[in-house]
Amino acid sequence: QKSKVLPGVTEEQQEAVSLLARRAGGKISVSWDKESGTPTFFTGDIPSEKVVSKSPGALQLAACRFLGENKTIFRLNTPGEELLLLQQQEDDLGMSHLKFNQVYKGIPVWASQLIVHFNKDGAIQSINGRYHPSFEISTAPSISREIAISLAQSQVKDQAENAEAELYIYPKDG
């Protein structure tokens, strides 16, 4: 039986999801970004190691290990290098939520985040967010810091007196 072709999602990704679901003995549900081919929501009976310690380091390691083991699905080659932990929260139900910013060689990728949700037992329950598949690009800025500040000041007039500039990667396609 041939699986339904989804725009932006490779056959290998779909096969990897099916294999993971079979391995878990359950169902995995995935919503996909049609342009980037990355999961925007991933949930179900996710086979992952249970983390006994809810320390940021232990949860971060477990999240990156799971994403790395399933890089075909998530399209992240080296999650430990491409994701920077921004925040960890524990809610009233005992669930832990780790929010990561996507980075490339330490430079933040504009509007690209991934959140990994652990249940109270320390197992991954779901993953959501919008980010870009691993990529290779030059990290040399296309304009200087001075020009960036000047352009910003020209657009906001009196509100940018003490403007600062920070380098970001802004993916144009996808």
In summary, what is this structure?
This protein has 174 residues and is an alpha+beta fold. Helix content is 28%, strand content 27%. The protein contains five helices and six strands.
Portion of residues within helices? 25-40%
Strand content: 25-35%
* Poorly predicted runs: none
Q: What is the total tally of β strands?
A: 6
**Topology pattern, helix = H, strand = E:** HEEHHHEEEEH
Major sheet: 6 strands, antiparallel
Strand order of the largest sheet: 1-2-6-5-4-3
Helix vs. strand class: alpha+beta
Cα(first) to Cα(last) distance is 31 Å
Question: What Rg is obtained from the alpha carbons, in whole angstroms?
Answer: 19 Å
The 3D shape can be described as globular
Q: Mean of the pLDDT scores?
A: 90
With helices defined by DSSP (H or I, 4 residues minimum), what is the helix count? 5
Quaternary organization: single chain
Notable traits:
single chain, 174 residues, alpha+beta, 6-stranded antiparallel sheet, 6 strands, 28% helix, 27% strand, globular
Report on this structure:
The protein has 174 residues and is α+β, with helices and mostly antiparallel strands. Helices cover 28% and strands 27% of the residues. It is built from 5 helices and 6 strands; from the N terminus they run αββαααββββα. The chain has helices at 11-24, 56-69, 71-74, 79-82, 145-156, and strands at residues 28-32, 39-44, 83-90, 96-104, 107-118, 124-130. It has a 6-stranded antiparallel β-sheet. The model has no long low-confidence stretch (mean pLDDT 90).
